[in-house]
Amino acid sequence: MAYDFKRAFRDLYQPKEQPAIIDVPAMSFVAVAGTGDPNEQDGAYQAALALLYAFSYTVKMTKKGAWQPEGYFDFVVPPLEGLWWTGVGAFDGARIGNKQALSWVSLIRQPDFVTPEVFGRVCELVAQKKPELAGALEAGRLRLVRFAEGRCAQVLHKGSYDSESATIEKLSAFVEGEGFVPDIASGGESPAGHAATEAFDAKTMLDALDVDGAVPAVRLHHEIYLGDPRRTKPEQLKTVIRHPVREP
User: So what's the pLDDT on residue 114?
Assistant: First the structure.
């Protein structure tokens, strides 16, 4: 049976609708950073998803190829995740004005056998199989990063993405009641030091996350998408909402 991260790490991927405090360990991800409306047809966000899924499924299907990474085991591709922020204040996801002003890092978790060397080899396989992605891969838009989130509060949201505000308010009240404060990066510029709605420096953003398993200085509103919006009714979608916290 294929290894399923969601089952192996239930505390990370199957939280309850009642908020809880957790400690999130180091994990490896493939990641793409970008800016703009995620709903834009054929936009940057959709292009990011194409890279993430092409890479992740190519890793999985090396079980049928002539080459396999050392330590390979069959696995269920983990769910899509996203870190989000805007150019003003600390973005907690509760209020979204202009979606064009959103910035994001989209991620999919990878097994630990996906090392930097394996990453490079799989990128070559993806470029061979999907030549339309070769340019983005050569430009370094897809990165392998490894970081921990550390102490966080999280909750399960059921329903459409646009109705998350009530769940986030419940999460925020829980954080305060537990004696913690949010530790989400804030300021007039994005966490990596550039205006989110101006020139976007994806490399700097991903560099900030690639800290060899440590907790990065950049900590952001985090969502994990357990449902596929293409196949699931909005009211039945499930999303993990996670906020970094610290002691006052």
Answer: 98
Residues 123 and 165: their CA atoms lie apart, in Å, by: 38
Residue 104: name the closest of 183, 205, 184, 194 by CA.
Answer: 205
pLDDT of residue 197: 47
- Using DSSP's 3-state secondary structure scheme, residue 131 falls into helix
Domain boundaries of the chain, sorted by first residue: 5-246
Question: What confidence tens digit (pLDDT) does each residue in 203-247 have?
Answer: 888 999 999 999 999 899 999 999 777 778 888 899 999 999 999
Q: How many whole angstroms separate alpha carbon 136 and alpha carbon 168?
A: 34
CB 14 within 8 A of CB 91: no
Q: Contacts for 225-232 with beta carbons within 8 Å, 24 or more apart?
A: 225/79, 225/80, 225/81, 225/82, 226/6, 226/13, 226/79, 229/161
Q: Is this prediction's pTM over 0.90?
A: yes
Q: Which CATH architecture has domain 5-246?
A: Alpha-Beta Barrel (3.20)
Give 197's Cβ-side CA count (13 Å radius).
Answer: 9
In whole angstroms, give the CA distance from residue 111 to residue 55.
12
27-35/143-147 β-pairing: antiparallel
The alpha carbon torsion through 8, 11, 15, 20 (nearest 10 deg) reads 180
